[in-house]
Amino acid sequence: MKKTLPRSVYAVFGVLVLLFAGLVYAWTTFSKPLTNIWTQGALTWTSTIVMIAFCIGGLISGRMQKRGINQKLILVIGAILMLIGFVVSGFGGNATGSILFIYIGFGGLAGLGAGLAYNVILSVASAWFPDKQGLISGILLMGFGISSFLMGLLYAANVDQMDGKGGIPWYICFLGIGIGCFVFITIGALVEKKPGPEFVAPAPKPGKKNKNTTEPFEEVTTAQMVRKANFWLMFTWATITTIAGFAVVFLGTPIAVAAVPHLNNSASLLAVIVGLISIFNGVGRIFFGGVFDKAGYKVTLLGICIFFIASMGLIILAMVTGSMLFLVIGYILTGLAFGGVTTSQSAYCNKFFGAEHYAQNLPIMILVILPASFGTKLVQAVQSGLEGGGMSNTGAYIVVLCGVAAICLIAGIVALFIKKPVKS
User: pLDDT, tens digit, for every residue of 322-378?
Assistant: First the structure.
């Protein structure tokens, strides 16, 4: 029998890998000094390219695993792609002044590498915890979620913002980030492996209730999954709630300033308050992962919708009253709810459709970020249109927030129609 490490070790190294793979979602921070070279509109397209490449990477990773390609090799390929991506975008973009190098390097290659690594870690590390699918999904995705916040702070503190205060040139920072991604994802590749047939999950403690047993409801292929109503109901729920999360994240700073105008005079305090969404996004992944295990999928999905609706109400109250307390609590609840969305997708996919084809099924489930990203652009267009039509910015934000609350109510209704499959 091959010697295996305690299963908690695989979880720790999984978080480490996703901490670096998640850096592709820190583009808002990475691109700040680049606005002195390219327009904000041109730079924004990088985020869209990253999302598309990330989804493609997940799909390719699932196919590679299905064909029996070793997960360690896939992780190393992902690490190499991220290294090359940061080098190409940094040195290529700086040397030529062409934003195409940013699109190809950061958006395409780094996004593809992150998708490869993400899919492997979630499918491999989660296999060690069949009894705690919600919790392990939350722990792993916490690393992915807080990556942009932690590494973004480190980057922002050291990079040359081109404001005359000095710092490390942005393309040198990109090189350092690429090397860090390569080193730590490769280390994770050396450690991570799937449990063997001899592995048995620990038995639950006597008298301890847990609605999430080790057995999935069904074991189905991707082709079978996409023909099931439960898949499309969950896909719809996840798309709606992802739009809600994206909308507040993308409008977080202007909403905060509109609600509490004096925050515009304190950049550090503003950054901390808006940063609460990212911090509690990580907390929410673990929190709702635990809820999924203890209370089941329906309570989790409905709970996330309730948190979103409550958060929209509190942010609206903050805009009406100017209360920073309402704003802070609203942003905390938004972060918790948004964190629960990705955890629920992962745990739901494993629980409803099984572990055998999880590596191929999960990339299909996370494709929600594509329609959600376009949905977010629609939200921003509505907000801009209201302002252009003569409405105050505060009024426009309130209308948008009411709309987000309304679609979260719809998501809650959708969740009620998701039924546990009946085994034949």
Answer: 999 999 999 999 999 999 998 999 899 988 998 888 889 999 998 998 888 877 777
Q: What is 222-416's CATH number, 3.30.830.10, 1.20.1250.20, 1.10.10.10, 3.40.190.10? A: 1.20.1250.20
380 near 44, Cβ under 8 Å? no
Q: What number of CA atoms fall less than 13 Å from residue 179's CA on the CB side?
A: 6
Residue type, 384: S
CA 194 to chain centre: 23
Write out the H or E segment, with its range, that includes residue 380: helix 369-388
Q: Which amino acid is at 94?
A: N
pLDDT in tens, 25-75: 888 778 888 888 898 778 888 988 998 999 999 999 999 998 989 999 999
CA distance 311 to 336: 10
Fold of 7-191: Growth Hormone; Chain: A; (1.20.1250)
